[in-house]
Design brief:
Helices cover 28% and strands 20% of the residues. The protein is of the alpha+beta class.
Length: 236
């Protein structure tokens, strides 16, 4: 049974379980709510795949509570859950230990390499050289004709790629098995769209959140990184 689909059922079951939760005095915490929130935001952006987006802190509320762990049995499947001792909040997913970095064991090859954030939500692999075809940086685009995000991204990317002309080698893979060796090195879930620029830069997801003009600018900047700022007419 899908864990997400039965979340509503769990909420109904736990409403009964809450009656048995004993209330305890919540001990004061010696770290400010703002610091806790900042730590969570930092962890999320470093360790979770947000499909090119960035988590930002919008609001902090000073809620002082501890948690009681409960285990629910739904049709034989166990669901570790947590209830706040004031009986107010239920957390139905396994907790994330933010004292531990993301476990990269078993991840695709390129996702295991150290990287930094650059323009447009792209990652730059710090210890990798730009890959080329006929001495031109290769731009890979992986997508599907049934993916609305791919359809949004494709014409924008193509308009930018066309400006670079013979300075790059463009591989557009829509509903194609071509370049799957490259795809598998950067993609953990098989989702699209995905862009790989010069092998050194990659991004999962489209740039829709930023808008068309911002996405064009970001694409130009990243491709210019791969070409060594050539041609100068584009990479000013």
């Amino acid at each position: 049974m899908n864990r997400w689909k039965i979340a509503t059922l769990i909420l109904a079951i736990v409403s009964i379980a809450l009656v048995a939760v004993s209330y305890q005095t919540v001990q004061a915490l010696f770290i400010s709510p703002k610091k806790v929130a900042d730590k969570a935001i930092e962890y999320i952006n470093k360790n979770l795949d947000l499909q090119g987006a960035t988590a930002k802190l919008e609001k902090v509320e000073n809620e002082r509570m501890t948690l009681q762990k409960i285990t629910l049995d739904v049709s034989g499947e166990k669901f570790p859950s947590y209830v706040s001792l004031d009986g107010r909040y239920l957390f139905t997913l396994d907790p994330i230990d933010m004292s531990k970095a993301k476990d990269t064991t078993g991840q695709p090859e390129m996702l295991q390499k150290p990287s930094t954030d650059v323009e447009g939500g792209f990652k730059e692999i710090t210890d990798l050289e730009v890959c080329k075809e006929n001495d031109k940086p290769i731009v890979y685009f992986f997508g599907s004709s049934t993916c609305p995000h791919c359809e949004w991204e494709k014409p924008i990317l193509k308009s930018v790629v066309d400006q670079f002309g013979s300075a790059i080698s463009y591989h557009e893979n829509i509903d194609s098995e071509t370049d799957q060796d490259v795809f598998s090195k950067y993609n953990e879930t098989g989702s699209v769209p995905m862009l790989v620029i010069g092998c050194k830069y990659y991004r999962m997801g489209s740039g829709e959140a930023s808008g068309e003009e911002a996405e064009k600018t970001a694409l130009k900047q990243v491709i210019c990184r791969a070409t060594g700022n050539l041609p100068e007419s584009i990479c000013k």
